[in-house]
Amino acid sequence: MSTAAPPFDDSRRLTGPNLYFAGTGAVLETGIGAPVADALLEAWTRRIARARDALGWPDGPVLVRPHATGASLAFTAPADVLYAATEVNEWAWLDTLAEAGIDTGEAALQPGHAPVGDEAAALHLLRAVAAAEHLPGLPALREASAVHALPLLLDDERLSIGMGTGSRTWDNHALPAPDEVPWQALHAIPVALVTGSNGKTTSVRLLTAIAMAHGWHTANSCTDGLYLDGRLIEDGDYSGPGGARTLLRHPDAEAAVLETARGGLLRRGLGVERADVALVTNVSPDHFGEYGIHDLDGLAQVKLTVARAIAADGTVVLNADNALLRAHADAVAAQLAWFSIDDDHPLLRQARGDGRGSCGVREGRLLLFDGTRSHDLGAVADMPLTLGGLATHNVQNCAGAALAASRLGIAPDTIAAVLARFGSAHGDNPGRLQRWTLGGGVQAYVDYAHNPDGLQHLLELVQRARDGRGRLHLLLGQAGNRSDEAIGELAATAAAFAPDHIVLKDMAGYQRGRESGAVAGVLRAALLRSGVPAGAIVECLDETAAARLILADARPGDSLVLPVHGTGSRARVVTLLDQLQRLGWAAGDALPPESTPP
């Protein structure tokens, strides 16, 4: 082991149920760059125990998760002292390294942090840090909330009890006594969590539309923002716990559908301790190398963190067509319900035999089993979201959302009615598998496809729809926080479909430390290695300009695949495509000047 290894890569709070345990705490990612010696891990564990004892914190899980580049070191701590918990974790690790003679550089000398090599002084300082953060009124409120079977949500500034229309919120510096809380006015609301590698936002929007049709004022969070009854409250990526808590405190929300992305799960955990249903759409390769997740099994475990929040009478809804979810299902303690494109899938048959829920396709129709009887939700080809049944991944999204809605208690007739119309208007599911038919038989597709699996599904659909007609154009980019290898895999996926014209772009807002054009350079090199002719590859880094370049090059019968990721860029591209359709534009015609979307 190097004597000059960085002391740690990351140290963070876990504010809700997470990969490591169902409570709150802290986790540190070691910076060793290789497997960590058992002696170091044991020494760290002993220091955590001594610090807990000195601080008067309760015992709880202390977990080590070894991985290819080190280890994740996590332990539970009270929810109101999580900054102090990160300080404890950092001190325990740095002191362990120092005792072993491993150079910690300047990390052990940072002012205000617990000193290394003097445990008594370190614990004295840590007690002061924890005391300054502690909320004296929290334990009594938590106990009273449990007695009333009500959820409690806590963040840096506020505490709330209940949810939505049945919630009340207080500033942390002015917490009420339990007898000052209007308990009779408080209640929970139905909550669904949605996660997966692909299809999260589509499933959230569809499930939200079903909940609204049921009569609930429904809040939802996703990568595009926070919404209530389909109206945008706040723009931005709110697929983490902060967005979830904001919506669960909204005074008009009667139900909530919360997109729960990998990043938020790993950085902070879930934003809620209890939910009624969790839907996991799929697990596929994406985002390896961050927070100690280096393989698909680790990613599957992250996605299934949502199961930690499912109530005893709740359900985890899983995709039976996904091999990773099948492999990890036995680790889920909650009741399982399965969906598939094949209603005769063994897991669906078993679920029906056990009186659990299922949803699958039989002879072209989507069948829902609610635990007691089967319901015909309609012909898959007639559901707009499936593009006549061509979009297999959206058939899965329809089945998953329908099954989750059923587990929330929504009637099959309501579910069927929404499936029969959702996706017929571009505003139903913006940025996800939108299609325009333009003059000259040009087909234009706008989608969020952001990883190899998502792009594979999209290009397979387009390939089936074009049936060998016309040329294939592709807009291609990737976020800067992916490795060169992962970017190369995206390029290889694209190359397998032999596109005639590829325009490389930046993903504005997602460059994540890379210079403009750097990702495009990696993509170009990988495309060339995969056999794409150099003359087929063009670079136009601005997303909107790149989409216009593809449209300007279109010929009759061509198919244009436009994965647009920036919210502003997508609005401009969608506005342009709507305008072209309205004007009767045909391939070869001049494009109208670029304008700002309304």
From TrEMBL:
Pfam families with a match to the protein in the record: Mur_ligase_C (PF02875), Mur_ligase_M (PF08245)
Superkingdom of this protein's organism: Bacteria
Cross-referenced InterPro entries: Mur-like_cat_sf, Mur_ligase_C, Mur_ligase_C_dom_sf, Mur_ligase_cen
Domain Mur ligase central as annotated: residue spans: 194-404
Keywords from the named record: Ligase
Annotated Mur ligase C-terminal domain residues: 431-561
GO molecular function list: ligase activity
Protein name, per record: Mur ligase
